[in-house]
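lol forgot to send this yesterday, sorry. struct tokens for the thing we talked abt
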């Protein structure tokens, strides 16, 4: 949960009314949530940054308390929502970082609104989703389109296996935290909203537009990431006009929270320091 100092409010953009959270003092960082995740997704990183940065996050379309125009949506729609939020409540140009779907939005924001982004740090991301990841996401979409639902206990274990490495899930303390969070998060997930978010990810392809993006893009991959393997993340840096690739050993797709948040925070600070 956010602290008592966190300001939570609603921002009205042209096509969405977004729940926004903001806390801290200093240069601005926007933390972009991944698919199915609200602003609280980033709370463990906030705890490591709000003492010298002003941190902003929000509920993207399709999750939390944000409401928007009906789907279908594109990642570019998500990026335009974020651009409107930044112009209203942050001091640009600024640092923007996101994971998974949030990494796609981070890239799209840098491409479409480079004046707002001083440094883009997409994590567990892709310039284009293919291979196993595409087949898995499409299967999940088809499963829900067919009207199927996952029991809460099954959904918890299913999604956790895609989010964390075996070493993390075998740790009783980590598993307890993951289980407590993932049950409510995926047990009550609206299937239509999930489909809309995941389809936007599958339709996204920025391989060509990255080549002319002037923003420094530092893509972070994790060696134990099943959802977005390191080879997929490395392609983001390869296509980017000003791209750099980083890799963290032993982390999974969502290890930035509940598993090894200090490792992720330390790398983020090193990258930001280079561009200060």
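and heres what i got for the seq, position by position
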């Amino acid at each position: 949960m956010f602290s008592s100092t966190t300001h939570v409010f609603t921002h009205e953009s042209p096509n969405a009314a977004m729940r926004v959270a903001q806390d801290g003092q200093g240069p601005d960082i926007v933390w972009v949530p991944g698919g199915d995740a609200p602003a609280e997704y980033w709370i463990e990183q906030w705890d490591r940054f709000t003492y010298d940065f002003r941190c902003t996050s929000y509920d993207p379309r399709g999750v939390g308390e944000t409401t928007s125009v009906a789907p279908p949506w594109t990642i570019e729609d998500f990026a335009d929502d974020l651009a409107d939020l930044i112009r209203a409540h942050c001091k640009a140009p600024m640092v923007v970082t996101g994971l998974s779907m949030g990494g796609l939005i981070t890239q799209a924001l840098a491409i479409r609104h480079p004046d707002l982004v001083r440094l883009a740090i997409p994590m567990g991301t892709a310039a284009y989703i293919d291979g196993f990841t595409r087949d898995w996401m499409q299967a999940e979409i088809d499963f829900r389109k067919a009207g199927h639902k996952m029991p809460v206990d099954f959904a918890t274990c299913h999604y956790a296996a895609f989010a964390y490495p075996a070493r993390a899930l075998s740790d009783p303390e980590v598993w307890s935290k993951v289980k407590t969070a993932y049950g409510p998060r995926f047990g009550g997930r609206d299937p239509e909203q999930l489909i809309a978010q995941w389809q936007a990810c599958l339709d996204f392809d920025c391989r060509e537009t990255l080549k002319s993006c002037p923003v420094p893009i530092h893509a972070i991959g994790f060696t134990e990431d099943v959802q977005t393997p390191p080879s997929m993340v490395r392609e983001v840096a390869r296509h980017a006009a000003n791209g750099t690739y980083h890799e963290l050993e032993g982390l999974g797709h969502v290890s930035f929270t509940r598993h090894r948040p200090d490792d992720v925070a330390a790398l983020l600070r090193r990258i930001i320091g280079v561009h200060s």
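The chain has a mean pLDDT of 96. anyway ping me if u want another try
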